[in-house]
């Protein structure tokens, strides 16, 4: 740890030197990272296959491509993001002028999970670079091949005092590191329990955090929805990466009138995407490890299996599965499933569906399939959730013009595009006041000025 502490101190010194402050420096780093990611695209793809059984196409669409898009949008916009922004000045402060500067935060820590191990490590890093920070990146030890290629890319691309990778078991490494060194921001993506412990550790030193957590993300299918399209889009969102996506549909609430029809379309979509034997599908992934595999298999007993259920512990395969007759107080409906098992429930009314969703408040994502804009407005107004889609699932993540993040139980803070830049900078407000106008009303004695103040402070 002493050696690591010295490394972190050298990062602090590098930050204090101000080297990364100019736009030209940050732009160059983004270009260097882009060049390295393009150079190693095939190796990244091989690593993602080894860790998660992602096909090269899926690896590109859900990891490398998203990272490249984030780099491109940052390269296009960084100059304008960095410019100080004028703000208006209120009556009491006239004739001052007001500006907002975006200050780098310092040395930031980025902690990533294993399910999208490349982009969840490096998209936050793009934000940290844009903000003019030094960054320590901690990839997940559970995706070791991707962690290794991340390390190779970052070592080749950046000076060690600027961007540094640390590898190992987060449960040992991170508490020790956060004790030994005061980071200026911690950007954490992962599970709720670990998120809480990161928050506690950060609180001791008043370190700001971004917490990108998980939870149970519901899908609502109204009786006026296009069921065939809904089934296809739910199937894609749910079974991509074998259900190990933080914003994947966790369970479906479908109007009772259309439940059977929706389920039959869902089955058709699954067999169309992954054939009738997903174990040999080019497009179907595997479960990360036996611990998660065993947990997921235990869910299969908690209701009636309508589809799928086949599994193989040696290959970490669990077929895309649909379940019915699941009890609302079973673990399957209390825990984030994070695997290819989809419980489906029928409902009659908005209130019934809403109360089921509220069993697990503040979902990370929410998906509604309907043609009725009044229903759409009602759900959006009443439910607090991180992000979502109407008549789609999961794709909101890929729009870097939208902030991505949770609320309440599903996290705090947001990122992607301009929102990453804001997360990784401090909005520093500065008001400039001319000296030629200095009315005595602003100075004591204030006696008798109450009416005037009431007019000024409006
Ligand atoms: P995890 O919390 O187990 O691990 C995430 C990271 O934290 C890893 O790098 C790990 O080494 C580190 N870590 C583990 N234990 C730690 C501890 N005690 N102290 C400090 N660090 C520790 O999460 P995971 O299993 O890798 O990821 C799955 C979870 O992440 C799911 O809940 C999923 O919903 C969530 N997730 C959220 C998002 C999002 O953007 N909101 C994205 C992907 C995954």
List key phrases describing it.
6-stranded mixed beta sheet; binds nicotinamide-adenine-dinucleotide; 458 residues; 7-stranded mixed beta sheet; alpha/beta
Helix/sheet category: alpha/beta
- Total beta-strand segments: 18
Number of helices: 16
Describe the strand arrangement of the main beta sheet, using strand numbers: 10-13-14-9-8-15-16
Measured by DSSP, the beta-strand proportion falls in: 15-25%
Ligand list: nicotinamide-adenine-dinucleotide
> How would the global form be characterised?
globular
Give the proportion of residues in helices.
40-55%
Q: Can you give the mean pLDDT?
A: 97
Descriptive overview:
With 458 residues, the chain is of the alpha/beta class. It is 43% helix and 17% strand. The chain has 16 helices and 18 strands. It has helices at residues 2-16, 23-39, 41-52, 56-82, 119-130, 144-157, 170-180, 192-204, 227-239, 259-274, 290-299, 331-334, 350-357, 373-382, 418-423, 450-456, and strands spanning 85-87, 97-104, 107-111, 134-138, 163-165, 185-189, 209-212, 218-221, 251-255, 304-307, 311-312, 317-318, 321-324, 341-347, 365-369, 387-390, 411-412, 425-432. It has a seven-stranded mixed β-sheet with strand order 10-13-14-9-8-15-16. It has a six-stranded mixed β-sheet with strand order 5-4-3-6-7-17, with helices on both faces. Helix 2 packs antiparallel against helix 4 (56-82), helix 4 (56-82) runs parallel beside helix 5 (119-130) and helix 9 crosses helix 10. The radius of gyration is 25 Å and the shape is globular. 43% of the residues are buried.
